[in-house]
UniProtKB/TrEMBL annotation:
Binds to RNA polymerase II (RNAPII). One of its GO terms (molecular function) is GTP binding. GO terms for cellular component: cytoplasm; microtubule. It comes from Eutrema salsugineum. This is GPN-loop GTPase 2. Signal peptide: none annotated. It comes from the Eukaryota. InterPro entries: Gpn, Gpn2, P-loop_NTPase. CDD domains: GPN2.
Length: 298
């Protein structure tokens, strides 16, 4: 069995930085990591990548040959990769014996909530390489500072989870910067736990720009609440403890934690019922650390 992470999220949410930090952390705890760059729009890579999509196709060539913009070019590249998935498979096969994979994906979110190529080629790789993947969706915590943007992030996370059908962890990234975006309307656990969005709607209604979308916002929030699937953990990629906590969640989601134990039902269940780490105390500690001087309104 081979384990790995599919790192996704809007442009600038921190995916490439994450792959770099995560590969360093995992190497430190003794895992052999292979980072696979599948984003042809990534400039200078901070990590050494085992496989780079640039060896297969270059975004600039696609854009000039097919008269496409950057967005259309990236969609083309992913469709091209799907058609040439044997290329990626042959590159990953030799590594799959003893490596843990980190896939650095493009930031075009439509690739993950309504486009089929990514899902299709990942499904193919999962089968052929016996992969166990967790999707890690990074959302810049800056989006919490605007209720409308936060609702969009919830919808994005939900639709990606439903479309990709992979074990999934949503992450508010760059949490070290949360204190610099001004006073948040609620405490951090409100944003991570996604428990009662009626408060958010009330807050949105105060803003004349969003008041006219009251009914729409309310319906969208109900969709998110009714599914009850979305919540977030937080990440500061520079902080070992923060990365370590996230690794625990990811390991639980893709089953890595079970890989080293004997096939005993008792042992499995002991781990399976272990506490999830996005409990109140942890979020409160993160709030304390990064939002020290903030007063919050309940
Ligand atoms: N403060 C802070 N900055 C971060 C963090 N993660 C990424 N960044 C910065 O966010 C910017 C975009 O990161 P990048 O990894 O290129 O995003 P990508 O487009 O999703 O691959 C870069 O300037 C990073 O240095 C973080 O945890 N904290
Ligand atoms: Mg990137």
């Amino acid at each position: 069995m081979v384990f790995g992470q599919v790192v996704i999220g809007p442009p600038g949410s921190g995916k490439t930085t994450y792959c770099n930090g995560m590969s360093q952390f995992l190497s430190l705890i003794g895992r052999k990591v292979a980072v696979v760059n599948l984003d042809p729009a990534n400039d200078a890579l901070p990590y050494e990548c085992a496989v780079n999509i640039e060896e297969l196709i270059k975004l600039e060539d696609v854009m000039s040959q097919h008269s496409l913009g950057p967005n259309g070019g990236l969609m083309y590249c992913m469709e091209y990769l799907e058609k040439n998935i044997d290329w990626l498979e042959s590159k990953l096969k030799p590594l799959s014996k003893d490596h843990y994979f980190l896939f650095d994906f493009p930031g075009q979110v439509e690739l993950f909530f309504n486009h089929d190529s990514t899902k299709k080629f990942l499904t193919k790789l999962i089968k052929s390489l016996n992969l166990r993947l967790t999707a890690v969706q990074l959302i810049d915590c800056h989006l919490c500072s605007d209720p409308g943007n936060y609702v969009s992030s919830l919808l994005l996370s939900l639709s990606t989870m439903l479309h990709m059908e992979l074990p999934h962890v949503n992450v508010l990234s760059k949490i070290d910067l949360i204190g610099s975006y001004g006073k948040l309307a609620f405490t951090l656990d409100f944003y991570t736990d996604v428990q009662d969005l009626s408060y958010l709607q009330h807050h949105l209604n105060q803003d004349p720009r969003s008041a006219k979308y009251r009914k729409l916002t309310s319906e969208l929030c109900s969709v998110v609440e009714d599914y009850g699937l979305v919540n977030f953990t937080t990440l500061d990629i520079q902080d070992k403890e923060s990365v370590g906590n996230l690794v625990k969640l990811i390991d639980k989601a893709n089953g890595y934690i079970f890989s080293g134990i004997d096939a005993s039902v008792v042992e499995y269940s002991k781990i399976a019922v272990g506490q999830a780490d996005w409990d109140y105390n942890r979020v409160a500690a993160v709030q304390e650390k990064y939002m020290k001087d903030e007063e919050t309104i309940d």
